Amino acid sequence: MARSELRPVITLRSTAGTGFGYVTRKNRRNDPDRMVLRKFDPVAGRHVEFRETR
């Protein structure tokens, strides 16, 4: 079965300016806007906001 476009792969980039990113999937039906998560940035050494990039 082909991967559904309902759950696309997205990249989350750190707002600390380190260039570090996470790759995850999201449900477009539940989260139609750009996702913002607070996760750990190992380059900065602390938790920061990660925003969805396209």
TrEMBL record:
Family: Belongs to the bacterial ribosomal protein bL33 family.
Molecular function as annotated in GO: structural constituent of ribosome
The gene coding this protein: rpmG
Cellular component aspect of the GO annotation: cytosolic large ribosomal subunit
Identification of the protein by name: Large ribosomal subunit protein bL33
Keyword vocabulary terms for this entry: Ribonucleoprotein, Ribosomal protein
PROSITE patterns, per database record: RIBOSOMAL_L33 (PS00582)
UniProt entry tagged with the keyword Isomerase: no
HAMAP family, sorted: Ribosomal_bL33
